[in-house]
Design goal:
The chain is mainly α. The protein has one domain. Helices cover 77% and strands 0% of the residues. The protein contains two helices and no strands. The protein starts with a helix and ends with a helix.
Length: 53
Amino acid sequence: MLGALVGYWIFAGLFGWGDEDTFDWGGIVGAFIGALIVVGVGSALLKKYDARR
């Protein structure tokens, strides 16, 4: 869900894509890219804090 929100913010908020219809390909692509960003950032943070142990 967080990835979908990040993707929506990036695509609809910054670029104006995917906010015309309820079901829009821009929304799906934005959610997918947002999920990749959240997973990447989360993975990097876990590696950073796990290395300190």
